[in-house]
Specification:
Blueprint: E1 9-12, E2 15-26, E3 29-41, E4 46-49, H1 57-68, E5 75-77, H2 83-86, H3 89-95, E6 100-103, H4 108-111, E7 119-121, E8 127-129, E9 134-139, E10 149-153, E11 158-162, H5 200-210, H6 220-232, E12 237-240, H7 249-265
Parallel strand pairs: 4-5, 5-6, 6-7, 11-12
Antiparallel strand pairs: 1-2, 2-3, 3-4, 8-9, 9-10, 10-11
The structure holds zinc ion (2 copies).
Residues 5, 21, 32, 182, 187 line the site of one zinc ion (ZN).
Domain Metallo-beta-lactamase: 34-242
Protein name: Metallo-beta-lactamase domain-containing protein
Amino acid sequence: MSNETTAARPIADGVHWLGGCLPANAQGQEVHYHVSAYLVVGAEAAILVDTGDPAHLPTVIGQLDAVLGNRSLDYVFPTHPEIPHAGNLPWLLDRYPSALVVGDVRDYSLHFPEHEGRFRPMVAGECIDLGGREFRFLPAFIRDLENTLWGYDGGAGMLFVSDGFSYIHDVPAPDGDDEPVHLPGQCRLLSGEMPAPPTVEQAAYGTGRALYWTKFVDVSDAFRRIDETLDAFPTRLIGPAHGNVIDDVDGMLRTSLAAHRKVYEGKPLYSE
Ligand SMILES: [Zn+2]
Ligand SMILES: [Zn+2]
């Protein structure tokens, strides 16, 4: 893994971009696939959104230590129970004995009976007070599992979207792989810092491959609800687990909606 992915990046007051990248080979070129986590630190409490991949456990631990210092981690919020999102839970629970797991935690006590009592079910609409800022659980309007949840930090105006809004840039696809990728050196760039904003085709690529069902479902209703959410909860940043952080929210939302429609309709859709 390249060095540039090993440091956390502060991206807003109290919000840090953690995790790492999994390298892949794309027709002879090294490309990267994000497995990101986000740490939101309030005056009273800190919450980790997704756990990072077990392959990055030492990286994530180092990033948490660097940001938290002597503070504890209070909450871990796996957006859904898949390895890149929840895989580091057992080590995090051991390392932070007072941390609680929050979100849709319906099955975790079966996997981790030794941590029974540390799982706090949260439903969309519920909030956690971090001290001076509130973390809100939201429905996942684009999701790959039934119990995926999104989150929103009111302090920074940042929306955490799990597997939603992953996209690729102008790089070849990894051999035999369909995941959204970026080039070494672009690991911690905001979308507005990338060489060029993603085109509809690039967004469609990541969307159609990562979330297979979008070929078959009209996402207009989902995007209307996302629009309503953005109206209700002003959003300056969007943090996907598998893509660069989006700082051009309106532009990216339009691109992604066009991408979903293109995948659904299965025909070219011309951008303006
Ligand atoms: Zn994922
Ligand atoms: Zn990378």
